[in-house]
Design a protein that fits this description.
This protein is of the alpha+beta class and about 280 residues long. About 40% of the residues lie in helices and about 15% in strands. It has ten helices and ten strands. The strands form two sheets. Strands 4, 5, 6, 7, 8 and 10 form a six-stranded mixed β-sheet that branches. Strands 2-1-3-9 form a four-stranded antiparallel β-sheet. A hairpin with a 2-residue loop joins β7 and β8. The longest helix is centred in the C-terminal third of the chain and has 16 residues. The relative contact order is 0.11.
Amino acid sequence: MSETLHPQHTALSLAASGVPVLPLRRGKVPFGNCPACADNACGGRPNMKTPGPCRCPGVCHAWAAASTDPAVIVSPAWAAAWRRAVCVGYHPGGAGLTVVDLDDADAIAWARTALPATRTVPTTRGEHWIYRGAMASRNAVRPGVDIKSTMAYARYLGPGTGVMANLPDAVRALAVKEPSPARLAAVVAPAGPGGGECPHRTPAYLERGIAMAVQRITGARSAIHATVYGAFLAVLSKHGRCGCLTDAHVARLFAAAQSKGETARHCVDAWTNAHATLGL
C-alpha cells in the first residue's frame, strides 16, 4: 500500500492484516496526550512504557494507542488526528514483528555481514529490516542501529521486498544490556575443580542443553520470572561445576530472558541465586 494514499486508508489496510496502527504527525512522532490524560492524570500507561487502565478514545499514549479495530481507526475521536497526520505508524511488537532500523550506509553494510537476510524496506537514510517475532526494543544497540518491537512504534514505509525471516538470536542478543565485566565474571566463574573441560561426553551435549533452555524461556507464556530461574537452574545443575560455560553461553540465556521482558539486573540475580541454590 503506497503512502501516496490518505494515511487513514493505509492504516485500515494494515489493520486488516493484523498490524496495530496509529497516526503520526509532523516530525514522524505520535500525537500528544489529550488534556484528560496529560501528566498521567488518567492513571494509565505511565511514561508510555506499559499499557494501563486508561481507555481514552483519542490517540493517546503513543505505541500503546495503536489499534487494529477499524471502528477505532475511523472514529470521530481519531478524525482530527488523521486530518493532521503526515504518515502511518505501527506497533511492530503488537504484530509479532521486530524492526531493525539501520540509519546509514555503514549500518546497512554491517547488517549484510552480521544478520540473516529478511524483508527490507528503504527509509530516508537507510533501511528497515523486518523479522517475524517480537522482542524487547532498544535504541543505539550499535552505531546507527535501533531495535523497534515491543513498546515502540515504527513508521510504515511500504511492504518492502524479500522474504521475512524468523527473528534470529543475533538480533535478540543486540538488545541484551550486558552486566559489568566484574559481575559477569563473577556469575560465570567455575565453582568446581572441573579444569575447564566438560565431562559430559561431547560439546554437543552442552549445546543441546543451552538450546533447550533458550527454547523453554522463549516459549513461556506466563510465570516468566520462574521459568527463567528454572532454566538457569537446569543448566547450572548440569554444567555449573565443570567449567564449560562461557560468556557466550550466558549471553544467549540472558538474551532469551530479556526477549521476554526481563531486565539485565534480574538475569544476573536469577543466575546468582541459581548458583547459591546449588551450592556452587
